[in-house]
Amino acid sequence: MGNPKFALPSLESLLESKHEVKAIVSNPAKPMGRKRALKHTDVGSYSLQNNIELIELDSFNNNAIYKKLLSLNVDIFVVVAFRILPEEYISIPKFGSINLHASLLPSYRGAAPIQWALMNGDKATGVSVFQIEKKVDTGKIITQAIIDIDKNDNYEILSNKLSNVGAGLLVEALNNLEKGEVRYNKQDNSLVTKAPKISKEMLRIQWDWPAAKINNWVRGLSPKPGMMAIFQNKRTKILKTLVLDNKVKSVPGKIKAAANSSLEIYTGRGLISILELQQEGKKCLPIDQFLRGTRISDRDFFS
Question: Which domains does the chain have, with CATH numbers?
Fold first, then answer.
């Protein structure tokens, strides 16, 4: 069971393993774009392209789909970036349901663990395979793997790393479950941190934040949805930055320098350089290309 690109390495690893994938469950296709053409999820598209039975789950109250899943008589449900399963679904298979989560549980329970690890400036994160229970992300841990976060990692890069590490971990967990060699570890609730869904309000850059915090949030939300600012009366996504100074102070959002290949902005504490941005209606540009086509005056400001 899965929806986005993050789930594909796990699916491919399962298909290459000794375990049999009976069917794939994903969200139904949705109308997308100006022409409102139906578009499947990444997992749904993969299923159709590889002639694997696809069950498009519109609602957990759909009795026909519930009966279909019962009839498959599977040993286990493997869930990667899907939806919160109700209790009656969790317990359908003989060995219940397991989930791959992109954090070292109990850290970062919730919908956006990768983003929050970057936004908080963490130096390491990881993936967890756990037994799904009624309460979200609380089940016993089967296995985990730690990876370092590189200073150049953004959401897309780190997501790809975790999805590939997680794919191998998932197959390892299934192998051990089959052999009865799993030692479940109960999560320590005193160590829980949350990773709530990213809201639109979070995407507005607060220039009075320290430069390091702005840089971490840009990394955590790039390339999508992207942190947002207003520049020359246009909505502008800031997609890559570099902290130049952690101490200097001036008016937050004020431009210190705009040379041929650099655009430096004062923050609440420190100086940050914008390396990539995208103005509304235009493509993403490295800063040198953007500056070649943009006139910047002393009155310009990032707000």
Answer: 5-191 (3.40.50.170), 200-292 (3.10.25.10)
